[in-house]
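nitric oxide dioxygenase
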Amino acid sequence: MDNLGRLLKESWVLVEDRRDQLASHFYARMFLTDPGLRPLFPVQLTGQRNRLLEALVNAVQTVEDPEQFDTYLRGLGRDHRKFHVAPEHYDVVGYALLDALRTFAGDQWTLEYDQAWRDAYAAIAARMLAGAADDPNPPFWHAEVLTHERYGRDIAVFTCQPLQHPLPYRAGQYVSIEAPRHLSRIWRTYSIANAPTEDNVLEFHVRCRNAGWLSGTLVRRVRPGDLLRVAAPMGSMTLDPESTRDVLCVAAGVGLAPVKALVEELTRYNRTRWVHVFVGARSESDLYALESLYRLSARHPWLSVVPVCSSDPAFRGEHGTLGQALDRYGPWTGHDCFVSGSTRMVRSTLRVLAEQEVPSENIRYDTFGGA
């Protein structure tokens, strides 16, 4: 796997700075080879191109870790059933991908690189197909919106309930959502903000600042009674029930969603682990929906909630960045750590945890608003 990973990364460098053109060529070749695939995709492909490349880069980065590689790709295969992807489509995608890579790498492309991508794609396709075949659940669930509440201009918290079949998931996971009444064939991932419940109600936190059409639709246009489509759950930012380590959760913006779900799950069985939750924002007005965490901390002495503001001199709580607050309260070496927020915030927090020598296997994270 080491040599394969090296070849994939070396060859990706040849085309990385032209990823938009690469994606355009890939789609053109794919639709020319099989025009029947075009109706499976949105009319506007800009967002889809970005998701394709994110998935491609993730696959390349995880190819050296067989366990993570397998789990991620099986989940991706289950998720792609919502696009009505059939087994025969994988050959078309592989042909188009290799053609695009050869075209944009030019004379620097070698037979060794070509074989590495063939082998990697064969492994990717096999795992995705296995994941799709092994899942007994439907490709997606129809879910009715029950409640919808706005926080300021750009954040909404809403709940929905899958119809007919329960949606099995673990606290900390995310799902893809489509709002077919408003935007057909446009999907985006959102973390579930509550632990599983008997009535199978799902809570979501969505922010539409600098976001795409779907987030804006979910914040501004969706109302109770609307039907959404919710795809199979994915993600590994979940609790290890056998761990006895204390827990650190760090969240910013709508990254609060999976952290809230994790805390709710812990309230059902935890008796011995201290749980510290840090929630960051620029100003106090950006700290939304903390009331439920405060209520939980009032009932469970092992839970502490620390809000942090980076640009609000009048705020009476902690000031500075989340990383600075973690330095003041740390060290966190013996904790299970969960980090959720923007790409920039997650990276800065991971640096702080690395400086404190927190083992990487004790850290789980999700990013919002970037690859």
